[in-house]
Amino acid sequence: MRDAMPGGPGKRFLAFAVATAGVVLASPAAAFAHSLSLDDDPNRPLWKYLWFGFLHMATGWDHLLFILGVVLIAGSVATAAKLISLFVAGHSITLLVATLAGWQLDPTLVDVVIALSVVYVGVRGIAGRPANLRVDGAVVFAFGLVHGLGLSTRLQDLGLPDDGLAVRVLLFNVGVEIGQLTAIAVIVGLGALVVRQVRGLRQRGAAQRAVSGLLIPAGLIAAVVLAVTGVGGEGEAYAAGCSESSDTPTSAAGGAGNHPAKRFYGPDETIPGADFAHVLGDGYVVITYRKDLRPAALASLRRWILSERTAIVAGAFDGQAEAIRAATARRELRCPQLHLESLSRFRDDWFDELRS
User: Fold this and answer.
1) Cα(253)–Cα(95) distance, rounded to whole angstroms?
2) Which runs of consecutive H residues, i.e. helices, occur in the chain?
3) pLDDT band at residue 214 using 50, 70 and 90 as cut-offs
4) Distance of alpha carbon 94 from alpha carbon 138, whole angstroms
5) Could you give the CA distance from residue 338 to residue 299 in angstroms, rounded to a whole number?
6) Strand order in the sheet with 285-289
7) Staple partner for 219: which of 19, 119, 152, 210, CB 3.0–4.6 Å?
8) 3-state DSSP call for residue 5?
9) How many angstroms separate the most distant Cα atoms in the chain?
10) What mean pLDDT is predicted for residues 11-33?
11) 152 phi, psi to nearest 5 deg
12) Residue 194: what pLDDT?
C-alpha cells in the first residue's frame, strides 16, 4: 500500500481484518444474514428508524468487510474516501427507490451477490492497486446499488406505514451511515491493540495479500451457505411481521358460488364474496388487500397474481385492518404490509400440503 495512507491506521485496518475475516469464515451464514425484524409495528416512532439503520450496519459484516476490502484496494485515505463515497451513493439510491417503489426482491439472491462483492474486493486486493481506479470505482458503485437493495429488503421487512415513507427511509439511511462511520472507528481502535501483538503485520504488502486472501473464502463460503439454506429457511418466512394462524378464514366469507370471472380485482371493484368462498373450499389461495394499499405495492401484487399459474385469486376487502390477508381452507396469513416472499412461502406450503 502507498505511503499516502498513514502507517498506523493502515496497519490497524489490516490487523483487525485478520480477526474479523476469521470470525466470518467460522460462521458465514450468521455473519451475513442480519435480518432486523425487531417488531412489526409500522407506526413505531421515527427515531427507531435511525436506530435500526445504525444497528443494521453495525451487525452487517457483509457491508463492513466490503468496505474494508475497498480500503485495501484504494491504497490511500483520499482514494478510499472517494471509493467509499461511490459505495454510499450507490446504496443510498437503491435503498430510497426500491423502498418507495415497494420492490420485493428475493433476499437470498441479494445477499448472495453481496457476499460475492466481498470476494471481488478480496481478489482485487491480492492483485494490487492499479494505476487507474476508474473501473474499480464503477464496480464499487454497482455493488453499492446491490447493497442498497439488501438494505431496502431489511427495511421493508420491518413493516412500514403508507404515509411519511420518504422520511423514514432517509432516517434509516442516516442511521446506516452513522453505523458505518462508527464501525470503521472501532476497527481502527481494535486494530491498534491487535497490531501490537502481531508484529508480522508490519510488512504491508504481505499483510494486504493475507487479509485479501481471507476475504475471498469468507465471501465464497457465505455465498454458498446462503444459496443452499435460503438465509435461514422456513423460520424466516414471515420476517416482515406477517403471522400465520389456523383460524377459520373470514375475510372473504360468503355463500355458495362459482369460480370468479377473473383472478385479480382492483380496489374500485366489488369482489364476488360468494365466489371467493367457493374457490376457498376448492383449495385456492384467496388474497384480500386493504383498499388504501400504496399504488406501488398494489402494482407489485397485481403483477405477482397475474404471473402466477397456480390457483390464486385476489381483491380488495372493506374494513380489513391488515394490508394483506391470504387464506386457504385451513389457515390464514396476515401481513401489515405487502411481502411477496411471505406470500410465496405461504402459497408453496399450502400446495405442497395438498399434494402430499
Assistant:
1) 39
2) 7-26, 28-32, 47-58, 61-74, 77-101, 107-127, 134-157, 165-197, 204-229, 273-281, 295-307, 340-355
3) confident
4) 15
5) 11
6) 243-245, 332-335, 324-327, 285-289, 312-316
7) 119
8) coil
9) 80
10) 46
11) -65, -40
12) 52
What is the three-class DSSP state of 344?
A: helix
* Phi, psi (rounded to 5 degrees) for 76: -150, 155
User: What secondary structure letter does DSSP report for 242?
Assistant: -
| Whole-number Å distance between alpha carbons of 179 and 56 | 8
pLDDT at 141: 92
Closest CA to 286 of 251, 242, 261: 251
Give the rounded distance of the alpha carbon of 34 from its chain centre.
8
Rounded to the nearest 5°, which phi and psi values hold at 130?
A: -80, 165
Q: Please answer whether residues 26 and 97 qualify as being in contact, where contact means their C-beta atoms are separated by less than 8 angstroms.
A: no
* Contacts for 313 with CB less than 8 Å, ≥ 6 apart: 260, 263, 264, 265, 276, 279, 284, 285, 286, 287, 305
* Residues 6 or more apart whose Cβ sits within 8 Å of residue 41: 159, 241, 336
DSSP string, 245-294: E-SPP-TT--SS----SSSB--TTSPP-HHHHHHHHHTT-EEEEE-TT--
